[in-house]
Amino acid sequence: MEKVIEILSELHPDVDFATADGLIDDGVLDSLDIVSLVAEIDTEFGVTVPAEEIIPENFNSAEAIFAMITRLDEE
Q1: pLDDT confidence of residue 42
Q2: What domains can you pick out in the chain, each with its CATH number?
Q3: Is the pTM of this model over 0.85?
């Protein structure tokens, strides 16, 4: 989880990702951020995020992103 927050903080250092939710709904993350994030997830965690997983629910919080990574890693 800490690594996810670190990656997100590199994109937007002004946001407290430990408590923020609604990252997509509130416009904190845009499509370019998601592309960067998906690439970082692959690099850092060795997890490929398929297109069908790129939905707001999976990217609205650091916790949701970490849960997605964990789930994809187990598959």
Answers
A1: 97
A2: 2-74 (1.10.1200.10)
A3: yes
